[in-house]
Amino acid sequence: MTVQSMRPELSEKDIVRLMKGETSEERATVAHRLCRRIAVDMLSDDERVYADEIISILAEDTAELVRRTLAVTLRNSPRLPHDVALKLAQDVETVAIPVLESSPVFSDEDLIELVLSVTSAKQAAIAARAMVSGPLGEVICEHAGEQAVEVVTANKGAELTDKAFDDAVSRFPANTAMHESIVLRDHVPVHIAEKMVSLVSGQVFD
């Protein structure tokens, strides 16, 4: 008997157990356990149906604690349905930020649209992702708030184009922390590097 065959299968009973939770703490506890199984276990086709239903129920829960449990537990999982990820991204910041920072189910187009519509804290979460493409970096530097621009310029996983650098510097010429981050990047346009050295006054190289 394998470990896989020994584990309990996801079923309608799990949905009933989730719905019976009288307090948000009880539901969050059940949610964490179920989401861990969804993220880690090999699921059968039938289990995937139940998993999607469980995730949808959690995303609609009135308790922020339960929705945050869903977001945190499945933030790195490709099993988080795309429509649910987008819904969580529009939720309160404590729920949205874990997903915006880490979820692999978002496309570049999703993230660009989100940058143009969400709060500054959510923009900063997107800017902190392990990988930020050139087009996404440009949108952040041109349209996002100062916090997000500061984060993306310090993010070694962000691909920043000449336009992104130009927009960041022109929009926030007094942000010393951002200037220092730009100077320390591996690849910086010559005209930007010269401007940064002048602005930072050599502090980074002391």
Give a concise summary.
By secondary structure, the chain is mostly helical. The protein has helices spanning 3-6, 12-20, 24-40, 45-59, 64-73, 82-89, 93-102, 108-115, 120-127, 134-143, 146-154, 162-171, 176-183, 190-200.
Question: Which features does this protein show?
Answer:
2 domains; mainly alpha; 14 helices; 206 residues
Q: Can you walk me through this structure?
A:
The chain has 206 residues and is mostly helical. The protein folds into 2 domains: 104 residues; 100 residues. The protein is 67% helix and 0% strand. The chain has 14 helices and no strands. Helix 3 packs antiparallel against helix 4, helix 8 packs parallel to helix 10 and helix 11 runs parallel beside helix 13. The radius of gyration is 21 Å and the shape is elongated. The termini are far apart. The N terminus is likely disordered.
Q: What's the count of strands?
A: 0
Instruction: Tell me about the largest β-sheet.
Output: none
Please state the structural category: mainly alpha
Query: Roughly how many Å apart are the termini?
Result: 64 Å
The fraction of residues in strands falls at under 5%
Helix content: 55-70%
Topology as a string of helices (H) and strands (E): HHHHHHHHHHHHHH
The helix tally amounts to 14
Query: What is the total domain count?
Result: 2
Low-confidence stretches: 1-6
Mean pLDDT: 89
Which word captures the global form? elongated
Radius of gyration: 21 Å
